[in-house]
Design a protein that fits this description.
By secondary structure, the chain is an alpha/beta fold. Helix content is 36%, strand content 15%. 47% of the residues are buried.
Length: 330
């Protein structure tokens, strides 16, 4: 397992970050046994995975923060915890209380990386940041990150200094951040934490057609707005996406590798990447993904994969919001 620093901090994290949203179960992920989630965290630590990402908003059948906290009761010192504050709680008078609630659920007295989950454009970012700096000064959080920040919001928050990461959706099928957001992060030494690096399972070969994808996952802008739970108002790019999936599978087959392994290796090969969030739901799923972090693509293959998914990139444009046609990442 390889380890990198969070921005300019001395906090080291594993390149494989365990995404803990599936621990919540519910309408997006389906039933999830808390005991299996806890076993997955322990298996991750045993494999050298130290980085765990959750959020106060991951709350359905179970609360993801609570499950992670129970898993780390006796192993907190081995873990780097990243969690997120939701947009409504970015008003200064709510920030401290919200952080305290997360600390309680996580059963810890500090959070390693506290992230703004989405921008709240009704609140001045200067006011939100001032409240977050107070948390850092008090020792409740060690570093501050953002999620889903476009260039305009990123520019505003960089003016206050102190931001170490930007968490964004990025994979072979979802490349809008390449247009302007990723270059902005690179220019300012802001590390990229990538969520959905396997396009929520699409790049694993699990689904042969759009109609096989569960409703909770087919709500993204890759799919038609006619899909249940979708509200982006666009025609989607189902044909382009599944043509690309087929092409990625062919390239992987030619290498004698699984498409998921090749797809994760492609994201790892991109500049500025700190960690990839992989949402394993069991120790077995965890084990399937670890080999991708020990594998580098042969020369020229990354370019082949990029070319295979170029039609999807062209169709999606610069809007990096996976779910809304009205881009929330300004």
């Amino acid at each position: 397992m390889q380890y990198k620093s969070l921005g300019s901090t001395e906090i080291k994290v594993s390149e494989f970050a365990l995404g803990c949203w599936p621990f919540a179960g519910g309408k997006v992920w389906g039933p999830q046994d808390d005991d299996v989630s806890i076993a997955t965290v322990h298996a991750a630590l045993d494999k050298g995975i130290t980085f765990f990402d959750t959020a106060e908003g991951y709350n359905d059948d179970s609360h993801s923060e609570d499950v992670l906290g129970r898993a780390l009761v006796s192993r907190r010192a081995d873990a780097v915890i990243a969690t997120k504050i939701s947009p409504p709680h970015l008003v200064p008078e709510s920030v401290d209380e919200t952080c305290d609630a997360s600390l309680q659920r996580l059963q810890t007295d500090y959070i390693d990386l506290y992230q703004i989950h989405w921008p709240n454009h009704a609140v001045a970012i200067e006011d939100s940041m001032a409240a977050l700096f107070k948390l850092r000064d008090a020792g409740k959080i060690r570093s501050i990150g953002v999620c889903n920040f476009g260039v305009q919001d990123l520019t505003a928050v960089l003016a206050k200094d102190g931001i170490v990461t930007n968490q964004l959706p990025y994979n072979l099928l979802w490349r809008p951040i390449e247009v302007e957001i990723a270059p902005k992060c690179l220019d300012n030494s802001v590390g990229l934490i990538c969520y959905s690096p396997l396009a929520q399972g699409l790049l694993t070969g699990r689904y042969a057609s759009p109609d096989e994808v569960p409703d909770g996952l087919s709500r993204s802008r890759l799919f038609s707005n006619d899909r249940p739970l979708s509200n982006h108002g666009e025609e989607g790019c189902e044909t382009e996406a599944f043509d690309a999936i087929t092409e990625v599978a062919k390239i992987a087959d030619g290498l004698g590798e699984h498409p998921a392994k090749v797809s994760l290796a492609w994201v790892r090969s991109r500049p500025g990447i700190t960690s990839l969030l992989v949402g394993a739901r069991s120790p077995d799923e965890l084990g399937l993904n670890i080999p991708a972090f020990e594998y580098d693509l042969p020369e020229g293959v990354a370019d082949q994969l990029s070319m295979a998914t170029e039609p999807v990139k062209a169709k999606l444009g610069s809007n990096a919001d996976m779910w809304n046609g009205d881009n929330r990442m300004r």
